[in-house]
Amino acid sequence: MIRSIIVGTGSYSPAKILTNKDMESIIDTTDEWITQRTGIKQRHIVEDGETTADLGEKAARAALENAGLTTDDLDMIILATSTPNNTFPATSVDIQNRLGMHHGVAFDVQAVCSGFVFALTTADQYIKSGYAKRILVIGAETFSRLLDWEDRTTCVLFGDGAGAVIVEAGEGEGTSADRGILTSHLRSDGVHKDKLYVDGGPSTTGTTGKLRMQGKEVFRHAVGMITDVIEDAYKATGLTSDDLDWFIPHQANKRIIDASAKKLKIDPKKVVITVDRHGNTSAASIPLAICEAVKDGRVKKGDIILLEAMGGGFTWGSVLLRW
Ligand code: UT7
Fold first, then answer.
1. Which of 147, 197, 305, 321 is most buried, with most CB under 10 Å away?
2. Domain at 277, CATH number
3. In the annotation, is 44 catalytic?
4. What is the pTM of this model?
5. pLDDT in tens, 56-82
6. Which member of 20, 66, 253, 280 is catalytic?
7. Taking Cα atoms as reference points, which of 322, 321, 4, 287 lies closest to residue 133?
């Protein structure tokens, strides 16, 4: 059977860093509060004029270089973002053009913090069906543009960045010994749409709007939803937490990550954490974390890796793969 194997990774974080100490001079907060409640110490923030397409393009170029490929080798680009450059066209099409790619197809996927898991799963379906052989999957966000910088309950949590992977069709036997994506599980339930949303849009206010969140409500649902889709992945493959080499979760809050790992009995040494340095970069957080763990040599060929995310909608999902 056809498997989708990750053959390249890349990332980009804006140069400008806002530390918790910097946040103390913007709003009524403390480094101690932010660290204790979230695990975040700093976040990267775009400069004026720096856009989601700029970040996505840089991550994409890094992933192509890492894989030793050019855009001639790609059939498709899928960008996960909730902070597009414009309402339309899709930011992926802009990135496609910047990369000098004028064949194939590019489109955006919108599932907020779960965006990368949704985009990677979409890529996997196109590859398994034979429609595409190689797909560039990007998560890129400029959440700083959506933040209400006077709302201390949200503006301390998010950051900007981009990460990208290239997935390629490979042969497998249909067992968990295969390399590539072994299983993925996506969920959504719009009953939760008002718990984490942006209060604007082209069809409502005609403005971009600002991010609004009932933080406690998100927290209350997060661990249960995350662990449900991970248990689905275990059921589908026969693998368990003991089989994992790395757990690379969406980086929203260290407390959510710790509680999920504890409930699933995942060894804390196997958990990749970047939230301390990046904050919550929404759809970019997982590919940023993957890229870091590949670069520093933690992730090796053959490793079993579990990805998960949960975000606005709510949307949530898991991907279990062998590197
Ligand atoms: O991908 C999903 C993205 N979203 C998330 O992951 C968010 C999930 N939720 C959370 O991570 C947590 O709910 C937060 C970190 C957002 C908040 O933590 P909490 O423990 O739920 O705090 P809280 O909202 O209950 O607020 C406790 C206190 C309040 O003061 P009072 O009413 O007790 O006097 C807040 O006003 O902390 C206050 N507070 C702050 N204090 C200092 C809220 N934000 C801040 C702040 N600095 N930045």
1. 321
2. 3.40.47.10
3. no
4. 0.98
5. 999 999 999 999 999 999 999 999 999
6. 280
7. 4
